[in-house]
Design goal:
The structure is a single chain. This protein is mainly alpha-helical. The chain folds into three domains: 226 residues, no CATH class; 110 residues, no CATH class; 104 residues, no CATH class. The strands form three sheets. Strands 1-2 form a two-stranded antiparallel sheet. A two-stranded antiparallel ribbon has the order 3-4. Strands 5-6 form a two-stranded antiparallel sheet. α6 packs antiparallel against α7. The protein is extended and about 105 Å long.
Length: 540
């Protein structure tokens, strides 16, 4: 009887197990691609793996080597990948790129969802391996191979923002800013294998990089997953949101360097301005629950509020700030008071230390100003103003800090200035001047240089709504150094003609700010070389 009950129990268990096979089969149905090329999501487990990015994106393409390696490790893929990663770092250290590439290939077969290895190897091929070759065509081949490798990682890790961003960074920066960028951009534009049937207008490296950055942002907005930065920390939204607009700005600047002017250049700068302003209007996360807008209207709002509340506080306690400052200055020890009267650039180390000790004692806060009033309703109102003013100053400083991080104000002003007729004409004239200079048509080159610099001066001095709006452009290193580089060529041209550098040169301020070497200055303005009276004369 007992044996019969055990037999029946086993039959029931088998029946239950058989019954569970149907729902398990339905739940675990893998994703697939039908004959029409449409992707089928599969069962619930496959859908959950997709939702949480736990599944590989590559479908219908089984790699025997990869599957064999996974079986051979008997479920120990993690430790095996760590050991291989250690070997890869060693090969990288000793510059054994052949074994490094082979080891990283093994890791991708073993752990195709290990994002860092796709980034590392792609970067390694594009930046380290490529520079081992002398011919720029060979270098370009390895740069593209690195890009292709990173793109292959996207086949296993669909819509991974870190990989999308990395492809955009290599295409835009390596092609557009490396020492060989002129040759790379030409090769990239002519690379039919990479671009396929894309139109010529869509083959510019900056424009292609921009599309990858835009795709990365779309994935971030869709999935909420941020790309990884260095040390696997999350990348800053301030930076990755700026990358696509910056590509457009660099594109507009680069096509002018390459000889594209007029309406096409103006349209490129107009698009760059729209992209940059759209970036400035976004609520960008910059901290725990904190967002900031970098745009001019938001920045101006905080400036106006600070000025308004400062004026209201000063009106409520007239002269209080100056009186408090005078009292605190008078209370300083004599040695600290004395050192404050010494110009900063003339202080020695001890005096700098004394000044640093004195400055905090002279700070008069807004609360101090409010508290200087007699007790009563006036003081209470002043304290409220002081608190609000302090808060607005903090918010204004926050906006200023993040604007300076991405150089927001400069790019906003430059994108607007570059669309002015004077800027467009200046670029074209200076481009023609350098062409004439290369062709040894020196007199024509000098005339074109002179006309181009005058156009730049006209732009900087242009009256826009009662102010010289664009004059501050030369204070930034990007525009200033670009101008100084061209001025050096102009000076070399004049030297070849035995002509003096003009004493009334219209961009003298630019030279003063950015020409540290003195090579762009006229000879009469440079310090005379001092002879050493103790030196032994050389024999003739």
């Amino acid at each position: 009887m007992r044996s019969r009950q055990q037999f029946v129990r086993k039959i029931v268990y088998l029946a239950v197990l058989a019954g569970l096979l149907l729902p398990l089969s339905w739940l675990s149905q893998p994703a697939s691609v039908d004959r029409g090329g449409q992707r089928q999501p599969g069962g619930k487990l496959a859908q959950l793996r997709d939702d949480y990015s736990l599944s590989q994106a590559r479908l219908g393409d089984i790699d025997p080597v990869s599957e064999t390696m996974k079986l051979a490790t008997l479920g120990m893929r993690g430790p095996a990948a760590n050991l291989l990663w250690t070997k890869a770092l060693y090969y990288q250290k000793i510059k054994d790129f052949t074994n490094l590439s082979a080891t990283l290939e093994q890791i991708t077969k073993l752990q195709p969802n290990f994002i860092r290895v796709w980034i590392f190897q792609g970067w390694n091929l594009s930046y380290n391996v490529s520079v081992e070759f002398d011919d720029y065509r060979d270098r370009y081949f390895w740069v593209i191979r690195g890009v292709r490798f990173t793109q292959e990682g996207l086949e296993y890790n669909r819509d991974e923002p870190t990989l999308l961003r990395e492809v955009g960074r290599v295409i835009s920066r390596k092609m557009g800013q490396s020492d060989e960028h002129v040759q790379f951009r030409k090769l990239f534009r002519a690379d039919d294998d990479f671009h396929g049937s894309s139109a010529d207008s869509e083959r510019d490296s900056w424009r292609v990089g921009k599309k990858w950055f835009e795709r990365c942002v779309e994935v971030i907005e869709k999935t909420g997953r941020r790309p990884k930065g260095s040390m696997d920390s999350e990348a800053s939204p301030l930076m990755y949101l700026a990358e696509a607009p910056l590509c457009q700005l660099y594109y507009a600047a680069t096509i002018e360097e390459e000889g594209t002017f007029g309406d096409e250049a103006r349209a490129a700068w107009a698009e760059a301005q729209r992209d940059w302003e759209a970036y400035g209007e976004q609520d960008i996360p910059v901290g725990s629950g904190t967002t900031v807008k970098l745009g001019e209207s938001n920045y101006r709002f905080y400036i106006d509020r600070v000025n308004e509340f400062m004026q209201r506080l000063e009106d409520s306690a007239p002269g209080a700030r100056e009186r408090l400052l005078a009292e605190r200055r008078a209370s300083l020890p004599p040695e600290e008071l004395q050192v404050l009267d010494i110009p900063v650039n003339q202080r020695d180390e001890a005096q700098h230390a004394l000044a640093a000790k004195a400055y905090p004692k002279l700070i008069v806060s807004h609360i101090d100003v409010a508290n200087s009033l007699p007790p009563g309703q006036g003081r209470n109102q002043a304290l409220k103003l002081a608190v609000e003013l302090t808060n607005y100053e903090i918010w204004k400083s926050e906006v200023e800090f993040h604007r300076s991080t991405v150089n927001y104000g400069y790019w906003q002003l430059r994108a607007e200035a570059e669309q002015e007729p004077e800027a467009l004409a200046a670029h074209e004239l200076l481009f023609q001047a350098q062409q004439a200079h290369r062709d040894v048509d020196l007199e024509k080159a000098a005339e074109l240089y002179t006309a181009g610099f005058q156009k730049w001066a006209d732009l900087l001095n242009k009256d826009v709504r009662g102010a010289k709006k664009y004059v501050s452009l030369v204070e930034d290193g990007i525009t200033g150094e670009m101008m100084v580089d061209t001025i050096r060529k102009y000076r070399a041209c004049l030297k070849q003609l035995d002509a003096p550098f003009p004493t009334d040169f219209p961009l003298a301020r630019t030279i003063e700010l950015h020409d540290q070497s003195g090579q762009a200055q006229p000879a009469s303005d440079r310090p005379a070389e001092q002879s050493d009276p103790d030196a032994t004369p050389e024999a003739e």
